[in-house]
Design goal:
Layout (H helix, E strand, L loop, with lengths): L8 E3 L2 E3 L3 E3 L15 H12 L4 E8 L17 H16 L3 E7 L15 E2 L23 E2 L2 H22 L3 E5 L5 H6 L14 H4 L1 H14 L5 E6 L13 H13 L5 E5 L15 H8 L4 E5 L5 H9 L4 E4 L1 H5 L3 H7 L25
Parallel strand pairs: 3-4, 3-12, 4-5, 5-8, 6-7, 8-9, 9-10, 10-11, 11-12
Antiparallel strand pairs: 1-2
GO molecular function, one term: FMN binding
Protein name: NADH:flavin oxidoreductase
Pfam family, one: Oxidored_FMN
């Protein structure tokens, strides 16, 4: 099939055979100590063999303090965890894919942390919603402790050190900073979870500053040559329908600040990427990102598993299309499209009763 989705490109020098990526998806299949393993290697390798040019990992916790969010979540908080990623990375690269490590700090949404017996976030405000049972949670989220300046500095250092371990020890091809879906950086950016009155609170520009500082710390640690991106969303895992109250003006400020921070790409995710970002009409969040972050590559994510939707996302300004559910059901989605074969529908059993990697997903 002739489609722009198969056009080769590069991301800050990283050569990629097409515009198709696997979106980050929590799979809670690491060891209790946060080590990646052979189950994960086989799972990720399937996507590369199936034709995806780029894979973005599940969220990887970054430090031995407050960043871990889930039991059996993989980490990059020390060299031993980084070395455990090496076989996974080599399997992906050996199958022709390239892989980016998504670096994540759960903050107040942590459901399990083997390093701390309490959670921490921008303010002592209980998160909305309830914990996710698919990832081992139950009941309300606890009220987090408000992070002190030392905690914030530790979180920034954790991102930077994890980025270095990802590139120099594990062998990843780039890193993505998780600033979306209600986790720590998103908590700082969101008005109803950030009631601070210091430099990290108040206006949207101040609330977005932590994400910018993390980008700068990571860029300083890695230098200019490593691909670095940021994932951004409105909705959150505990508040799917959330919309930025600042609307288009807020989007312009956020995307503009991130575009100037030193990133190579923005990963924009919505439930349905083509929908208007605010209200019943107007531009999508993808289109707003394209408008306010000129010169920055855009990864679009959100129910784009239909090939026509994926192509339309490119027309709307995306450089890459990232598939989640579509990739889970079709780890060979690019090959199927190229060969004109039918795509399988998403099977909810892949994420229930626990969202871990199922035996069928380890098949070679």
């Amino acid at each position: 099939m002739n489609t722009p989705l198969f056009t080769p490109t590069n991301l800050n020098g990283l050569q990629l055979p097409n515009r198709l990526a696997v979106a980050p998806m929590t799979r809670v299949s690491a060891s209790p100590e946060g080590h990646a393993n052979s189950t994960m290697a086989r799972y990720y390798e399937r996507f590369a063999r199936g034709g995806f040019g780029l894979l973005i990992t599940e969220g990887i916790y970054t430090d031995a303090a407050y960043s871990q969010g889930y039991f059996r979540q993989p980490g990059l908080s020390d060299r031993e965890q980084a070395r455990a990623w090496q076989p996974v990375v080599k399997a992906i690269q050996g199958a022709g894919g390239r892989v980016i490590a998504q670096l994540m700090h759960a903050g107040a949404l942590s459901q399990f942390n083997r390093f701390r017996d309490h959670t921490a976030g921008p303010s002592s405000i209980r998160p909305r919603g309830t914990q996710m049972t698919a990832y081992g949670g139950e009941g309300e989220y606890p009220v987090p402790r408000a992070m002190a300046d030392a905690d914030i500095a530790e979180a920034i250092r954790g991102f930077a050190r994890a980025a270095l371990l990802a590139m120099e020890v594990a062998g990843f091809d780039g890193v993505e900073i998780h600033g979306a879906n209600g986790y720590l950086l998103d908590q700082f950016m969101t008005g109803h979870t950030n009631a601070r009155t210091d430099r990290w609170g108040g206006t949207l520009a101040h609330r977005a500053q932590l994400t910018v500082e993390v980008v700068r710390a990571v860029r300083q640690m890695l230098g200019a040559s490593a691909p670095v991106g940021v994932r951004i969303s409105q909705g959150k895992v505990n508040d799917f329908g959330h919309k930025w109250p600042e609307a288009e003006a807020g989007a312009a400020r956020v995307f503009g600040a991130l575009a100037q921070s030193g990133i190579d790409y923005l990963h924009v995710t919505e439930l349905e990427a083509w929908r208007p970002a605010f209200g019943d009409a107007g531009p999508s969040l993808l289109q707003l990102a394209r408008r306010h972050a000129p010169g920055i590559a855009i990864v679009a994510n959100g129910s784009l598993h239909d090939p026509l939707r994926a192509e339309a996302a490119l027309a709307d300004g995306a450089d890459f299309v990232a598939l989640g559910r579509g990739a889970l059901s079709n780890p060979d989605w690019p090959k199927r499209l190229k060969e004109g074969r039918a795509l399988a529908a998403f099977d909810p059993a892949l994420l229930s009763p626990v969202g871990d990697i199922k035996p069928v997903e380890q098949q070679r």
